[in-house]
Amino acid sequence: MNNVVLIGRLTKDPELRYIPGSGTAIARFGLAVDKGLSKDKKQEFESKNQPTADFINIAVWGKSAENCANYLVKGRLVGIQGRISTNSYEKDGVKRYTTEVVASNVEFLEWGEKSNNQSNDYNNGGNEDPYYFGGFGTGNDDIPF
Q: Does the keyword Amino-acid biosynthesis apply (predicted)?
């Protein structure tokens, strides 16, 4: 069984590419997933300059990849369901290994305009959306599904 479920924040904007020949879309981005440390342990890690989150590479294919590229930005909270994929390649005579999560489902847990301003109005208390309900838009026509 190979099943992964993650909730975290994007560490960078999704990078969208298309596979030559087939035209299949693929988006890649990093996800920071909190380690769930206690307050004391988190302070201890921070004082030693140790990460308090795991940083995981995510790959999304097809229409979901295009939606991610169009609607997600760095810092946005998402839920990911997928599988772990490992690979290897050789570069300059050195064998390198990669690990990423191939997402089969991406849930947008925060909404907002994709702009140069990375702040999310929902988190800053400045929400004017009449359909806003606890982090989810319930009637916004701009939702891609």
A: no
